[in-house]
Amino acid sequence: MDLTAFFKAEFAEHHDTARRTEAALASAFAGLVGACVQSIRGGGKLMFFGNGGSAGDAQHLATELTIRYKTDRAAIAAIALTTDTSALTAAGNDFGFDKIFARQIEALGRAGDVAIAISTSGKSPNVIAALRQAKAMKLVTGALGGKGGGDLAGLADHLLVVPSDTTARIQEMHITLGQMLCGALEIELGLAK
Questions:
Q1: Which of 109, 112, 62, 110 is nearest to 82 (CA)?
Q2: Is-contact 32 142, C-beta < 8 A?
Q3: Contacts of 52 (CB under 8 A, 6+ apart)
Q4: How far, in Å, CA of 152 to CA of 71, rounded?
Q5: pTM of the full predicted structure?
Q6: Residue 112 backbone class (left: φ over 0; alpha: ψ -120 to 50; beta: rest)
């Protein structure tokens, strides 16, 4: 294996995906930021969820908002639905894995909250079920997707689909977009110093 060639090819694909994401998603990103600002200003919260690496991203972003991103400031109400092992295992055992996020949205979600799905494929049954639950409860829905969006279209009020079919590149753009969301919220909410 030529590690130098591999290294250069990975960066080339990353840069290409980043450029295409920047060109495609500015308007959708602004819409998601606006919805989140409106929710927080109205006393609502942001709920992030996803599977695997996307679960890690959900936790990362919720932490950036509740604790701090760039500066010490007031906490921003956010939660990752991927962190409560008792809730996840009870819902999985009692209702099935497809309901692990939907059940938490049913318990914790309120109209005006924003439910944000993170899914590289857009086809995970538990993510789709959670968005359906959120829509039924009149929550604002958002999603970070890839691979054409899968089943997220029509379920996410604010859909950001990374223009790639490569899971690693999609995940890289998801965390970039998520970090940008955190930074934009601090600014828009007047919390940046």
A1: 62
A2: yes
A3: none
A4: 33
A5: 0.97
A6: left
Q: In sequence order, which ranges of 119-165 are alpha helices (DSSP H)?
A: 125-136
Kind and range of the H or E run holding 160 = strand 158-161
Cα→Cα distances 190→30, 44, 116, Å: 16, 17, 22
User: Tens of pLDDT along 96-136?
Assistant: 999 999 999 999 999 999 999 999 999 999 999 999 999 99
Count Cβ atoms below 10 Å from residue 13 Cβ, excluding itself.
15
Q: Which amino acid is at 35?
A: A
pLDDT at residue number 192: 86
For residues 110 and 40, what is the distance between their CA atoms, to the nearest angstrom? 12
Q: Which of 55, 14, 60 is nearest to 170 (CA)?
A: 14
Q: For 30-58, what is each residue's pLDDT tens digit? A: 999 999 999 999 999 999 999 999 999 99
The pair of structure tokens assigned to 129 is 């079920």
